[in-house]
Write a structure and sequence with these properties.
Elements: E1 18-24, E2 27-29, E3 32-34, E4 40-42, E5 57-64, E6 71-78, E7 81-93, E8 96-99, E9 103-106, E10 123-133, E11 136-147
């Protein structure tokens, strides 16, 4: 993380050892990720297979220079990364959607198998990271279909389960 040097008033000699900062992505500008107006880093130091998105919570390992607020990040990764299996896509609106009523996704930043388009009622495996997205605290970074609602069969390990019927609710 490179920050405009600014002397820390009242701070004595600082420890130049590795420290950890937990922060939320506030903006992204080309290849630069901002955690606040003055803390930023280049995307090339982010953990492999993870692309931060606005609202994601990150764990940044860094070292500081004594007496100054600028520091160098050595590692950036999501604070929490969780896998969920066989969960249902509960809504899709344009390029955004929700899985299991609790996990936000956007087609702008989720990894999908070639040719797969998420649909309501698809059963999927998902990898998610802690994030602030509208009223959700998780953002899907990878979705893999287990069973899709748009075709009769999907890769189910040879079990060949039939298409799940969509149920409607009477009011």
């Amino acid at each position: 993380v490179d920050v405009v040097p600014r002397h820390l008033y009242g701070a004595g000699p600082a420890d130049s050892g590795t420290r950890v900062l937990i922060g939320c992505v506030t903006s992204i500008c080309e290849d630069i990720i901002y955690i606040s107006n003055c803390i930023y880093f280049f995307i090339d130091i982010v953990s492999e297979d993870f692309v931060p998105y606005k609202g994601n919570w990150l764990k940044v390992e860094y070292s500081t220079e004594p007496g100054f607020s600028n520091f160098k990040a050595s590692s950036v990764k999501p604070t929490h990364c969780i896998h969920a299996e066989a969960v249902c896509i509960t809504s899709v609106h344009g390029r955004n959607g929700v899985i299991d009523y609790t996990i936000f996704f956007t087609l702008d930043s989720v990894k999908l198998p070639d040719g797969y388009v998420p649909q309501v009622d698809d059963i999927v495996n998902v990898v998610m990271v802690e994030s602030i997205q509208f009223c959700f605290i998780w953002r899907a970074i990878s979705i893999t279909p287990v069973h899709t609602s748009s075709s009769g069969f999907q890769d189910d390990g040879g079990l060949r389960r039939p298409k799940r019927e969509r149920r409607s609710q009477s009011i």
